[in-house]
Amino acid sequence: MRTDGYAVLDPQGVAEWLGMPDLSALNALKEDWDQLPPDEYLKDGGKYRQRRHACFQIDADADGETVVQVPHRAHWQPVEYNALHGGMQRWFAPMEACTVAAPAWQHLLGRLAAIAGELRGQRRWFVEAHQFRIDTAAGIGRPTPEGAHRDGVDLVAVMLVGRHGIKGGETRVFEAEGRRGERFTMTEPWTLMLLDDARVIHESTPIQPLGADSNGYRDTLVVTCRGEAFQGDDAVN
Asked: In the structure, what pLDDT confidence band is assigned to residue 234 with cuts at 50, 70 and 90?
């Protein structure tokens, strides 16, 4: 992270980082992705994205990180960071209460906030979590319809939950102030990519069905950590 502005952990690395002997506790959350409602805000007219959203405040103390869910709120980004969907309040369906209360979920968020603290110094973190399913029912699905972008936060975490019956979905990470970039495809469930959002931009390429079956999909979890306030508080309040 300090050298390149991003890091990628394979599932074994994630298990070690979380202090879990295996990832069964995370696997127990997977069925959530089969129940995601449609994203009704896609401006490209697509129907390929399903989504849930939740927000948290996380504080560090002597016993670790304290994770508190805040009342459900809109997701907002400025057009400078999201030219396609910026400048609008998007009210996505909330994450399931049982998921938010799961110890594995609380632990994951706490560990991500700890990494943000290592990057920027300890502070209160304003955290947004997004559960995504991108499908190929219409022939193509776009994980990042806005293109290569930054999110306007301090830390971005992208975790692959699973992929089925697809090709594509290549991850691309580029220096925000340079020419160097990397391209790779996350294929194993619970692979984790961490991004220093000030230093890099990122995108994922479209997905298509692997064969004649159009029921392919790519499931991800995206978590962002931002100091000071939730993005958009000054703009929408």
From this structure: low
Cβ atoms of 159 and 221 closer than 8 Å? yes
Q: Which residue has the tokens 């994450």?
A: 95
pLDDT digits 0-9 by tens, 115-162: 999 999 999 999 999 999 999 999 999 999 988 899 999 999 999 999
Residue (of 16, 7, 25, 43) closest to 158 by Cα position: 7
Domain harbouring 158, CATH code: 2.60.120.620
Q: What's at 103, amino acid-wise?
A: P
Q: Domain of 205?
A: 6-236
Q: Do the domain assignments include residue 73?
A: yes
CB atoms within 10 A of CB 160: 21
CA dihedral (144, 146, 150, 152) in degrees, to 10, reads -110
Tokens at 117, concatenated: 């603290």
CA dihedral 81, 90, 102, 159 (to 10 degrees): -30
Measuring CA to CA, which residue among 129, 115, 22 is closest to residue 70? 129
Backbone angles phi, psi at 32, to 5 degrees: -55, -40
Pairwise CA distance, residues 118 & 113, whole Å: 9
